[in-house]
Amino acid sequence: MAESIQHIISLSSRLHSHDFLSKSDYDWQIQELISILKRSNYSLLSGGLLTDLDPFEHTLPFLFALLCQIDSVQSRTRSALPEDVKPGGKLWSKTIQFLRTLNSSQICYVWREWCQLVEVILRAAENVGKPLLAVRVTSDAILRVDPTASLFTSFHPTFLRLCLLSQAHSYALPILDKHISRYRTGFELPPKNAGGYILSSDNYTDNHATEATDMSTRLTHRDLSKYYLYGGMIYMALKEWDKALHSLSIVISLPVVNSVSKIMVDGFKKWVLVSLLRHGKLATTPKMISTHVARAYQALAKPYVSLADAFEKGDHHRLRTEADLGKPIWRADCNQGLVHQIFRAYDMFLVLKLGSTFSALTTGHIAKRASSSLGSTTSIESLVACLVMSEVLEAKLLQLQRDEFPTMLRFPTSVRVHSKRRDITRLELLRKGYTLELLARGIGERNNEFRMGHDNIDFLMKCQGWPGISGKGTQGGFDSTIAGVEEDIMGDIN
């Protein structure tokens, strides 16, 4: 047994001289080590000697030994989460130490085993009601192994759910703010005599070899839906409405066969509320949503659609009625907090609409139109002051010296507003003009590169003896032909 351990340690130590090894030699040595670890005696890995090593210097032996010890404790206690695995246990400490100090360049060879280990600590932390203990270390581990955070794994939804449970939203942002662009497929077949490993087709982790496992067979449509739903909820908690709308739009736009899932319906309900909070109206539904799916959403989320209709029509009495009648529904859907924020958003957009109609009005006038939550003039003044300081609204509050006169709210003069809009339009036109200039320049360069200019095509037509080239009719025939060529090119581009 001692000789076997020494052999494993020796092979592991050689990997740190990979700067002096060719890519193929490094891949071969690391595959050989993994193959030995998988064939090793169960008692050899579960003995504890390998987990006394440095996790960075011996990442692969440490990982396999740690998983073997966890499996041994689970078998002995007949529990999926024994005490040693939970926070405070011996194996918990070893796992945290490993995730913080591992050699990330070797993890892409044992991706399935690494995911299994992360899932263990996530479940253990949730089991004892302390999800925060696993959230930070998981976030750091993901970024350590995959700095781009673009690879979706089976534990991503669980990680976001624990971020929500622990209200540690900031730890999810480094992962959420990156775009998911890759999934580990289970259809990659390793070449013969490659020990079950293939070279990665993407540029992940310096193009080291990647294990062709069946890990992704566990990834389902539901996992992706939950990930973006939880992501939208995290953005909602941070009041980042645009990002929340984006995540929820992905949830409601996922392809369906016959009927929409419950997760997609929950996403649509939240999408309706976030649309009102961000835009003051329902946002345009994504174009990829089919008609029958849109109808299903409308039918299954009818109370939310009715609430949005009252909001858009500016009927605060009906809005209050719809909100009161739907309290059991909001509570059951865990959307009560969002509905409560609807009234403040209603008042905010009301003030913005009044500003586009009136040049000045009293706070009492606004109070008559506002929701019951903003009935006092003091509340209105606080709201307007908040909008002005956040530069959402351009207006002035005028408080007269005599208390019997109400506070006046003055909006900018129409000339100033039109001048500002004109400046914005001018800047937008300049920006688009510059973009078109760059596009035209690029098209000209491509025409010269591919010999698609007028002179080149004219010369080609003359060489091939096409009719309508000579004489004064050349220009007319040439333009007609060019139009056809350009139309074909644009068709290919489209």
Can you describe this structure?
- A three-stranded antiparallel beta sheet has the order 5-7-6.
- It has three domains: 2-219; 222-229 and 236-340, no CATH class; 358-420, no CATH class.
- The longest helix is centred in the last third of the chain and has 36 residues, at 414-449.
- It has helices spanning 2-14, 23-39, 42-46, 59-77, 90-101, 104-107, 111-127, 132-145, 156-166, 173-176, 221-237, 241-252, 262-279, 291-300, 302-312, 316-325, 327-332, 336-355, 363-369, 377-389, 414-449, 454-463, 474-493, and strands at 151-152, 182-183, 197-199, 209-211, 360-362, 396-398, 408-410.
- By secondary structure, it is mainly α.
- Helix 4 runs antiparallel to helix 5 (90-101), helix 11 (221-237) packs antiparallel against helix 12 (241-252) and helix 11 runs parallel beside helix 13 (262-279).
- It comes from Aspergillus homomorphus (strain CBS 101889).
- What is the H/E order? HHHHHHHHEHHEEEHHHHHHHHEHHEEHHH
3D shape: extended
Percent of residues in helices: 55-70%
SS field, number of helical segments: 23
Main sheet overview: 3 strands, antiparallel
Major sheet: arrangement of strands: 5-7-6
Uncertain stretches of 5 or more adjacent residues: 185-217, 469-494
Overall mean pLDDT stands at 80
Give Rg in angstroms: 32 Å
Helical/strand content category: mainly alpha
Number of β-strand runs: 7
How many domains comprise the coordinates?
3
Proportion of beta-strand residues: under 5%
What gap, in angstroms, lies between the N and C termini? 66 Å
Domain COP9 signalosome complex subunit 3 N-terminal helical repeats: 48-291
InterPro entries: COP9_N, CSN3
Pfam families: COP9_hel_rpt
Organism: Aspergillus homomorphus (strain CBS 101889)
